[in-house]
Amino acid sequence: MSEQPISSDLQKLVQDEQDIGVVQKVHERILELLTQGEELRYIAVQKKPVINVFPMCIVLTTRRFIIYKPELMGQAQFEDYIWRDLKDVDLKEDVIGSTVTLKTVDGKELSVGYLPKTQARRIYAIAQEMEEAMLEERRRREMEEKRAAAGGIYFPGSDTAGGAISREDPVEILKRLKRLLDAGLISQQEYDAKKEEILLRM
Questions:
Q1: Sequence-separated (6 or more) residues with CB below 8 Å from residue 134
Q2: Bridge partners (DSSP) listed for residue 121
Q3: From residue 167, how far is each of 9, 33, 173, 192 by CA, in Å?
Q4: How far is it, in rounded angstroms, from Cα 127 to Cα 23?
Q5: Residue 141 CA to chain centroid, in angstroms?
Q6: Domains of the chain
Q7: pLDDT digits (tens, 9 = 90+) for 74-98
Q8: What distance in Å separates the CA atoms of residue 24 and residue 20, rounded to the nearest whole number?
Q9: Can you tell me the distance from the alpha carbon of 90 to that of 176, in angstroms, rounded to the nearest whole number?
Q10: Which residues contact 133 (CB under 8 A, 6 or more apart)?
Q11: Contact 19, 27 (CB under 8 A)
Q12: Cβ-contact 83, 63 below 8 angstroms
């Protein structure tokens, strides 16, 4: 009997010499867990040097990183975190394989060893990419919170800014705007626009 051809989706997940049988099983299980709009990005499969029974996997999606731990009788454990929970990722390369460690913001460390180097490097690269994206998102959120805490002077998408301006002393608001500008929390263009708006209200 000839082997059944694998789907194009699976073909994309075994380009780095992953065990096709393992990836197929993990793929089927993970598909049941995906939320609407979530997509698989990569699956790395552990490859122990002697007996590679029940290999662990690292699964990356567009929204989460998942540690897949197979057990007896076809059971498996899934430990997953959204990308926003990722604090850091480490890669350690050894002679017989590599270890990837994912660290979360609450102090947990999730490590999988005996990963083929190519797969480990791909996991590391994708995780680094997502870590940078989440860091930028956290910075943006912090900046918006600081702007909001400054008295509602400038908060994109908020209807409270105009109310804050009409109730407060325009001179004090202008001083606060200048402090935000000096601190780099608003641009010169934003400062000028708000200043003009305040002067028109006076």
A1: 83, 84, 86
A2: none
A3: 58, 50, 10, 20
A4: 19
A5: 15
A6: 8-142 (2.30.29.30), 150-201 (no CATH)
A7: 788 999 999 999 989 999 999 889 9
A8: 6
A9: 42
A10: 83
A11: no
A12: yes
Kindly give, in sequence order, each residue whose CB lies less than 8 Å from that of residue 105, ignoring residues fewer than 6 positions away: 85, 86, 87
Distance CA 128, CA 164 (A): 40
**For residue 69, what are its two tokens?**
């731990």
Q: How many CB atoms lie within 10 A of CB 35?
A: 9
Asked whether 181 and 191 are in contact (CB, 8 A), the reply is yes
Phi then psi dihedrals of residue 34, to 5 deg: -70, 140
Q: With a threshold of 0.85, does the pTM exceed it?
A: no
User: pLDDT tens for residues 83-137?
Assistant: 999 989 999 999 889 999 999 999 999 999 999 999 999 999 999 999 888 888 8
Alpha carbon distances (Å) from 110 to 21, 54, 87, 105: 24, 17, 12, 12
> Are the C-beta atoms of residues 24 and 6 closer than 8 Å to each other?
yes
Which residue has tokens 């082997």? 3
Q: How many CB atoms lie within 10 A of CB 65?
A: 26
